[in-house]
Request: fold
Amino acid sequence: MIAAAGDLAALDAVRVHALGKQGRITQLLKTLGAMSAEARQVEAPRIQALRESVAAAIAERKAVLEAAELDRRLATETLDLTLPVEPAPRGSVHPVSQVMDELAEIFADLSFAVAEGPEIEDDWHNFSALNIPESHPARAMHDTFYFDRTDGEGRKMLLRTHTSPVQIRAMMNQKPPLRIIAPGRVYRSDSDATHTPMFHQIEGLVIDRGIHMGHLKWTLETFLKAFFERDDVVLRLRPSYFPFTEPSAEVDVGFTLKDGRRVIGGCEGWMEVLGSGMVHPRVIAACGLDPDEWQGFAFGTGIDRLAMLKYGMDDLRAFFDGDLRWLRHYGFEALAVPTLSGGVGA
Reply:
């Protein structure tokens, strides 16, 4: 029966017939329990030898049939190399990286240099040098990620809550006049549709002689018109308070409603996009400069928020989920480098 099996299915039927739970050899093994000890000593080796010989014959026949099946497939099956290959997932430039490049391009045209600083800061650079007193709510544990250690001078260490410490380091390490932007990651204890514990911020700083609010307004207006690529961008400056600027102003940008969505341009409504102001004399003095000789302005905004406004995202948390579908939809081609001549929103 084993040698007559013409394929694997027939051979498996033979195996079940002989060695299955109800197979003939299995039934013979079950009879050993009813035999006397003397008979069992005679019959048990004989039945076991039969079982092993049948199993070996089945295994040998199976190997022959499998080899024959493989030879048949090799002789008949072909691979059509002309069929298109499914493309592998392609990478893309994240919207945050794209917007950072757009901002750097715009401010480079205004003679701003890019400055960087550490993401792990001490509380003097992050707070004290920026005229933020010990009792200020921004220092609270529920806003700031503190480390359980200090630096060599006994100052608390933390994850920076803004990129303003980069401004302090620039004023202390470089001679004025200064024109810098400071893009980078910052950290605050907050999470919802428009806030994440880690996000991206860009701040700008100008230190020179004779600087006033008119310079600040012109810079912001030029920047926002170039970024949103519209000439009808309208700004509104509202008095505000920041410890490190005096006077301070919140900057709103006008929008119009089209099909229920806010579109930057016009002034049907207003939304806040920036915080700004003239650098506080105490901050200038803390960096070793004479506030009677040097003045400046500073501004800051969220890079993620700018990306949401320009490219139509509605949930900040999706920026960091790593969802390939989201990245394919909102990502940019690697060679879509923003230029002022070709358009920053490449």
